[in-house]
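Progress note, sequence design subtask.
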């Protein structure tokens, strides 16, 4: 038997942690809100950095992400309807999903250092994505897709809830936790839109 390893898990509150490998049943569903460790992506932490004190992104990754978690619940529920064959694809769903997804950027890694200009640029990208989602609700999409878009928009903050000046003030060497939470949530929406595109 190997020695048991314990360390701080970078997401409060405490919850079960499952070790997966690429052929695990839920592997395709874990692109929700996670930090990948020891990947081939240079911005991801190594196992030593994640377990130690050398990972620059730890302070931001330890912050709660309530909006991202709420959106993750929507994404997981919708993916369940896909798996059960309950999703009725509307004529315009795929085209609209692809258009919105192209207008979104993935959330930058938590360890990225920012200055005022970077925070303002990221804030502008968030506002543009929110506006694109709002516009999509007026497009000819199916009932299921429209309902999901409306639920996502009720869950995401309004533009007035994420003013750039406040996000700049909340940011230090790392981005504001509130900004990163919304960015992660939008990344999950992008993931969902990509799923719709393949229906």
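Output:
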């Amino acid at each position: 038997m190997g020695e048991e390893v314990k360390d701080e898990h970078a997401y409060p509150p405490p919850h079960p942690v499952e070790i997966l490998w690429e052929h695990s049943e839920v592997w395709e569903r874990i692109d929700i809100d996670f930090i990948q460790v020891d990947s081939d992506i240079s911005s991801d932490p190594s196992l030593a950095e994640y377990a130690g004190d050398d990972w620059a992104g730890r302070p931001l990754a330890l912050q709660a992400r309530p909006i991202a978690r709420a959106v993750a619940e929507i994404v997981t529920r919708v993916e369940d309807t896909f798996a059960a064959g309950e999703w009725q694809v509307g004529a315009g769903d795929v085209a609209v999903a692809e258009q919105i997804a192209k207008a979104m950027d993935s959330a930058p890694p938590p360890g990225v250092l920012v200055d005022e200009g970077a925070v303002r640029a990221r804030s502008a990208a968030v506002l543009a994505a929110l506006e694109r989602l709002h516009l999509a609700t007026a497009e000819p999409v199916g009932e299921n897709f429209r309902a999901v878009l409306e639920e996502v928009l009720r869950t995401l903050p309004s533009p007035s809830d994420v003013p750039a000046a406040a996000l700049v003030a909340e940011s230090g060497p790392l981005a504001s936790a509130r900004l990163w939470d919304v960015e992660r949530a939008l990344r999950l929406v992008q993931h969902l839109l990509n799923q719709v595109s393949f229906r």
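DSSP finds eight helices and no strands in the chain. Work on this subtask will continue into the next period as scheduled.
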